[in-house]
Design a protein that fits this description.
The structure is a single chain. The protein is α/β, with parallel strands linked by helices. The chain is built from 13 helices and ten strands. Helix 4 links the parallel strand 7 and strand 8. The longest helix is centred in the C-terminal third of the chain and has 19 residues.
Length: 324
Amino acid sequence: MRTVALAVTDGMLHFELSLACEVFGSHAPAGAESWYDFQLCGPGPVRVGRFRTTPDDGLDALARAGTVIVPGWADIDRDPPAALVDAVRAAHDAGARVASLCTGAFVLAAAGLLDGGRATTHWAHTRELAARHPGVTVDPDVLYVDGGRVLTSAGKAAAMDLCLHLVRLDHGSSVANALARRLVVPPHRDGGQAQFVTTPVPEPGSHPLADLLPWALQRLDRPLTVEDLARRARMSSRHLARHFRAVTGTTPLHWLHTQRIRRAQELLETTDDTVDAVATATGMGTATTLRRHFHRTVGVPPDTYRRTFRARSRADAPQPPPTR
């Protein structure tokens, strides 16, 4: 796996491309006895976002690499170039480990590398990936999927999680941790994409539930039922369910559950309330119930979530000027 080849063509996302260059193309971190031979492989000078870059070798060189990285594909509504798809498939057939970053999963899917397996991509595009490639089991709630010789990451920052995972596999945790410290990123993040996905409420006045949803949001600390919502909306439970599916894409109970979890996230991020207090404020009843549902939905326990976001807030806060 010593040689890492980064596939580049017109239409790639520059964030994921530059991230992979930073991880695999820079000097070895402390503790590494060796490092990667890194190269850009493409059809010629290409435009990546607002930048132009010149590859070191052609796409056929992917087949000689131990690891092939496919960055995010910018326009998922457009088929990736056949030359890229063929080169990625040839690399895999030659024994390369192939990893996609963000929407690069669409390239791997087009090459047939994800068929019959589990994969992920940016949460905003997981449904499209699943619809376009029904032979792929798309998991929208993870930061990355390691399928052995085929790996996929979720969106943007999750690309870093996958790259560090590859370093950890190749060089061990100590080297991966040293690299993470140099890049000033967590060596390993708990949880999945769900902790970063917001659940927007439709605009008021634009649908039959316009008055009901804000009413329910103000009463998340109460044990609301579908019957309570239907009574407030002055419609039958069955009629309410149809409207909920049309407006929110889900059932009334699932919507309520999602809003309770989202409220818990906000309280954990912005207050010092105990988990018991957060459970009460979100209608979960007990800390045990909150912990169970929170962990199942977000991927980490409430305490871990709070530490993560508190640490992030401290890191983002303006620092006082140095004193003399």
